[in-house]
Amino acid sequence: MERLLSAEEVAEFLGIPVATLYQWRHKGCGPDAYRVGRHLRYDPATVRAWLQEHLAVNRGVG
Known about the structure:
Blueprint (H helix, E strand, L loop, with lengths): L4 E2 H8 L3 H10 L6 E3 L2 E4 L1 H15 L4
Antiparallel strand pairs: 1-3, 2-3
C-alpha cells in the first residue's frame, strides 16, 4: 500500500488551494478521505481514480 497523502499534498497534486479540497469534502464531491486522528489522509490510488473519473466526465466520455 502506498503512503497516505495529506490534504496539502493532494491539493498540490490537483493544482488547487487546500481550502477548495476542504470545500469539496464538505459538499461530498471531492476524493474520498480518511480521518486519522485529527488529520485527513487520502489514498493516492483513490485520488488518481477520482481524477480520471472527473476528467472523463468533463470530456463527455462518462
